[in-house]
Amino acid sequence: MPRPRKLENRGLPEGLYHKGVKGYVFKRIDNTWKSLGHDKAKAVVLAKRYNATFRVDSELTHVITEFCPNKGSSNGSPLSEFFDRLRIRYEEDEQPSKETLTLFLNRLSKLEEVLGDRIGDSVTLSDVNHVLTLFTTDKSNEVYNRWLGFMVKVFDYALDEGVMTDNPARRKKSRRIEAKRRNRLSLTEYKEIWLAAPLWLRTAMALSIETTHSVNEVCSMKYTDFEQLNQPVVEQGLKIYGYLKIHRQKVKDKEASRVRIPVTESLLQIIRTSREDDVASPYIVHRIPLKRSNEVSQNCDHYTQVNKKYLSKQFSIVRDRVGVQDNLASDQRPTFHEIRALSIHLYDKAGYDPQARAAHTDSRSTEVYKEGHIHWVTVPAAELSVV
């Protein structure tokens, strides 16, 4: 006759015990133990399900993967095995950029630390909340929503492979994103920063304000992207020396993302001036790093290419050095990205249509031509020549 159960365990299903701060634990028929957390109702339900399956005649049994892992089944394998497959599949299926892939893999490693030894269908909304608490406490709503979206994607892949039969992350509500707080940049402030900037940063700022494009495109512009004409032509009263091809990465899959901007006198001067440092670089925006290492900076493919994060950071440093909007908190002062907004505003004010130039949408005034199998949108000639 088995000994009586302790008072705190009386009324619990067979095999289920309460272990104080450890919460509820369950003893399987093979004498192995399973932690069931601190939720009594959930622990009781799971224990009853197990007992109804495994503590009966063998003719009535069937596999419950939460308690009896079956290595021959994807449902019964720990999530860590699925995560190993996902690392390969995600890159093959979605072909993300190097930066996006690195971020995904970093988050997946963190998720594996928390859930890697779990079975797919044992993951609940409580686990989703636990992960969000671990990695987004004291972070912005944007970070919270990115983590939630990441888990939705991972668990969708798990559903696709039969590792899970439900995606608990889809039952979680995302948080409201507040409107951007950063202040706009004025033309006068732009000029103050430009005058105090080194040549490479001046080049980046000038390219941004003339082309309407932001840090991603500016850091990627190569001299070979400039198609110089044998003889200048005149278009809308402006002398055109060639065309600068820009592929906007944020909307790279849309036709309007590939623009071909006429190179006027102002833009030609920016390209020429960028060479005055005599640095041999394929990139229009370039610099010799102060510390030369064997490795090329992340997001770059040449040691002279400027990392977009470095560019944004240095712009903010120069901005603060000259005192632009220093009466505001640092997170409210304009960043390099505000040059794009200023450029679009100035082109619109000058009577030009900035939409096609900025690669937002196709414009009726644009001319589409074909090179191979890629469409480029040739935009109307225009220039600001602000400096």
Spell out the blueprint of helices and strands:
Blueprint: E1 16-18, E2 24-27, E3 33-35, H1 40-54, H2 79-94, H3 98-115, H4 125-136, H5 141-161, H6 187-196, H7 199-211, H8 215-220, E4 226-235, E5 238-247, E6 258-263, H9 265-273, H10 308-321, H11 338-349, E7 367-371, E8 374-378
Parallel strand pairs: 6-8
Antiparallel strand pairs: 1-2, 2-3, 4-5, 5-6, 7-8
Helix pairs in contact: 2-3, 4-5, 7-9, 7-11
- Tell me the fraction of residues in β-strands, as a range: 5-15%
CATH topology of the largest domain: hpI Integrase, Chain A
Biggest sheet strand order reads 4-5-6-8-7
Q: Share of helix among residues?
A: 25-40%
> H/E order of the elements?
EEEHHHHHHHHEEEHHHEE
Shape: elongated
- Give the C-level CATH assignment of the largest domain: Mainly Alpha
Mean pLDDT, nearest integer?
A: 82
The number of E-state strands comes to 8
Gap between N and C termini, in Å?
A: 94 Å
Given the helix and strand composition, which structural class is it?
alpha+beta
Q: How many domains, in number, for the residues?
A: 3
Ranges with pLDDT <50 over ≥5 residues?
60-74, 359-373
Number of continuous helical runs: 11
The main sheet comes to: 5 strands, mixed
Provide the CATH architecture of the largest domain. Orthogonal Bundle
Rg, alpha carbons = 29 Å
CATH superfamily of the largest domain: Intergrase catalytic core
Keywords: DNA recombination, DNA-binding
InterPro entries: DNA_brk_join_enz, Integrase-like_cat_sf, Integrase_recombinase_N
Protein name: Integrase
Question: What are the key terms here?
Answer:
387 residues; alpha+beta; Double Stranded RNA Binding Domain; DNA polymerase, domain 1; hpI Integrase, Chain A; 3 domains; 5-stranded mixed beta sheet; 3-stranded antiparallel beta sheet; 38% helix; elongated
